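Postdoc handover notes: sequence design on the structure in folder B. Input tokens:
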């Protein structure tokens, strides 16, 4: 019953739309300017993705080094929320300090102190992480707090 009424409705709509579809030209011609714009947008997207990958690894590889200096497994640097939780664990805070963004700023300051750096270095870690995280990760700075057991 319902199927037959739907079929009848579709047939009547098709009969109404058929004259309009018959007069429509469905051919498409592209110009060279359209092709150039598509290539430019594609190259921009590829460069953006490559830049983001480089930026992420510019932070994650030194963060892995920081974790191993503090006695934590380095692979935890590559897990998005877990790395913030581990930073909180390294500086002696509870796990939920890594979940809330404003508390991440505080733990970042304390991370600088845990490696014997000043408050100015902590400000650098917050404002210019692409410069200061690699400096901390690849420097000879030693973890100065008592060793903590790994989370996992």
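Designed sequence:
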């Amino acid at each position: 019953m319902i199927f037959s009424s739907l079929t009848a409705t579709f047939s009547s709509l098709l009969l109404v739309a058929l004259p309009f579809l018959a007069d429509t030209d469905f051919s498409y011609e592209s110009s060279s300017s359209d092709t150039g714009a598509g290539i430019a947008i594609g190259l921009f997207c590829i460069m953006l993705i490559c830049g983001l990958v480089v930026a992420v690894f510019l932070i994650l590889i030194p963060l892995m080094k920081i974790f191993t200096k503090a006695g934590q497994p380095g692979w935890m640097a590559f897990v998005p929320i877990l790395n913030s939780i581990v930073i909180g664990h390294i500086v002696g805070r509870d796990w939920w300090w890594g979940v809330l963004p404003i508390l991440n700023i505080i733990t970042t300051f304390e991370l600088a102190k845990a490696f014997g750096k000043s408050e100015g270095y902590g400000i650098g870690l917050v404002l210019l992480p692409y410069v200061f995280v690699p400096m901390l990760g690849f420097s000879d700075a030693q973890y100065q707090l008592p060793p903590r057991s790994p989370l996992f």
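Context for whoever picks this up: The two ends are 62 Å apart (CA to CA). Don't rerun without checking with the PI first.
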